[in-house]
Amino acid sequence: MNREEYAIMFAAEDRHWWYAGLRAMLGKALQRHLRAPNPRVLDAGCGTGATLQWLAARMARPPAGLDISPDAMRFCRQRGLSGLVQASVLALPFSDNEFDAIVSLDVLYHRNVPGRERALAAFYAALKPGGLLILNLPAYGWLYSSHDAAVHTAHRFTRRECTALIRNAGFEIVHATYWNTLLFPAIVVMRLWRKVRPPADSDLALPGAMANRLLGAVLGIERKWADRFTLPFGLSVFTVARKPEAAPS
Known about the structure:
This protein is α/β, with parallel strands linked by helices and 249 residues long. It has one domain (3-242): Vaccinia Virus protein VP39 (Rossmann fold, 3-Layer(aba) Sandwich). The chain contains nine helices and seven strands; from the N terminus they run ααβαβαββαβααβααβ. It has helices at residues 3-12, 17-33, 50-56, 70-78, 116-126, 146-150, 159-168, 184-196, 209-226; strands at 41-44, 64-67, 84-86, 99-105, 127-138, 172-179, 236-242. It has a seven-stranded mixed sheet, sandwiched between helices. It is globular, with a radius of gyration of 17 Å.
């Protein structure tokens, strides 16, 4: 990710409608599928720390946060977060069977993760049998935009690609859906226009207060469906998977 994008993300992600919507999706998934009473959770690719901070406020046991970027670590420390490790998702510096859940939101698409299979193998090893893996990834290669260039996107995924990749790593798929479906037509038009006229500002920038509330409300309506059903298209793919209970140690 371009260094300036970290500062923009840090300023926006606590309130930005998209980040808030993704955290709400995460919360629903953890509430529905996480079994451990006092879970040990890892945010793998924690960025500037908004999700890690959100998890810390909701977990009895402090979560761990990992990111390869020193800029990300610096912003996490500004939030007063602990349990931080600067390392790559390709080689997690943790014991096998250590975590009850691993959350990795918009990480495996990145140019700095050239071996997605290696990352998933590392997640699998670090999870306890029955542990939960939650991934979010951008959808559809034809939606590649100037924002993708700024955040160093190497690949955008289909739902089928995501589920195949995760199954091949040994996980069982619990739920996989596209999301950001209701806003998809409008955002597709905007993305295609921006290919012709690249914007001066970042896609991560916080919109006006009224627009931010409206877009967040739309995602709130959609979330009631995405939590239970497989939506047919959208801007991202949200996947919940589980390491088998009988997984070999």
